[in-house]
Design a protein that fits this description.
With 264 residues, the chain is an alpha+beta fold. It has 2 domains: 152 residues; 102 residues, no CATH class. The protein has 10 helices and 5 strands, in the order αααααααββαααβββ. The strands form 2 sheets. A 3-stranded antiparallel β-sheet has the order 2-1-5. A hairpin with a 2-residue loop joins β1 and β2. α1 packs parallel to α6. The radius of gyration is 28 Å and the shape is elongated.
Length: 264
């Protein structure tokens, strides 16, 4: 059986550097301010946890519950006090950054290893051989990726990925509009449970019947139920409905829903 030496100081310092990078990335991703000393404190706790894995009878430290508790404590040390919802956002970003950096480090270690790994037992030897090289290259790649993603975000690159052309048809009319995929929009039509697309009235106006346009454009605003009532028994009545919604500043809003013939 292959044997190799593990240096505790290397394990601690390596994990300290990686944990700091993870917490720094979590702060950036969640847009949460955190002092450097707090990030160092959280990173030090994570590094101390990595040393606990070498203690006799360490099976307790390897359970999923202990790992989850350690993650919560590390995140709390870096970011608390926070609103509970914001804290869970930070915790999620912590996991995302951890898995990303961990994958990069292991990927770098085995990328720069030129020999073969004959068995599972040989994996530990490869990690020990390229420990610092893997951490250094992983941190460099992680930093470059973080800077690159930040630069693309400032230039609006990610917004362009969510932009698409939308074609709406109703009867013999159709309109084309530029749409933005809103990942936070979970609105659904009450009866059919179909997802709702929010479109400004100006763009969809040509598709609406005259009765609806008159009700919407009258002075003093319009009432959703009044618009629906104005349709009466017309053939357009089945194309409209009332959609309840919640938004900032509007706890119990009501939106006029329109079912087009086709939406692409």
């Amino acid at each position: 059986m292959a044997t190799y030496t593990v240096y505790i100081d290397q394990v601690f310092l390596g994990n300290l550097a990686m944990n700091y990078a993870v917490l720094w990335a979590a702060a950036k991703l969640s847009r949460t301010k955190a002092a450097m000393i707090r990030l160092v404190a959280g990173a030090a706790l994570g590094a101390a946890y990595s040393l606990a894995l070498f203690l006799p009878g360490n099976h307790v430290f390897l359970t999923i519950w202990f790992k989850a508790a350690a993650s919560v404590i590390i995140t709390a040390a870096a970011f608390v006090p926070l609103h509970m919802r914001k804290f869970f956002v930070c915790l999620g970003c912590f996991y995302l950054a951890s898995f990303t950096l961990g994958g990069l480090v292991f990927g770098m270690i085995f990328f720069i290893h030129s020999g073969q790994v004959a068995s599972i037992n040989g994996v530990g030897g490869v990690i020990a051989e390229h420990f610092w090289s893997g951490i250094f290259l992983g941190l460099v790649a992680f930093g470059v990726a973080a800077k690159g993603i930040g630069a693309l975000y400032k230039k609006g690159f990610w917004e362009n990925l969510f932009k698409m052309a939308l074609l709406i048809k109703s009867g013999g009319e159709q309109v084309r509009v530029g749409a933005l995929l809103d990942t936070g929009n979970s609105l659904r039509e009450p009866m059919t449970k179909h997802p709702v697309v929010v479109v400004e009235y100006t763009y969809i106006k040509p598709l609406l019947p005259a009765e609806v346009r008159a009700s919407i454009e009258k002075s003093g605003g319009f009432d959703v139920w009044e618009v629906l009532g104005s349709l009466g028994e017309t053939r357009y009545a089945s194309c409209f409905c009332a959609i309840p919604f919640h938004s900032l500043g509007e706890a119990k809003g009501l939106m006029l829903g329109f079912r087009p013939t086709r939406l692409c």
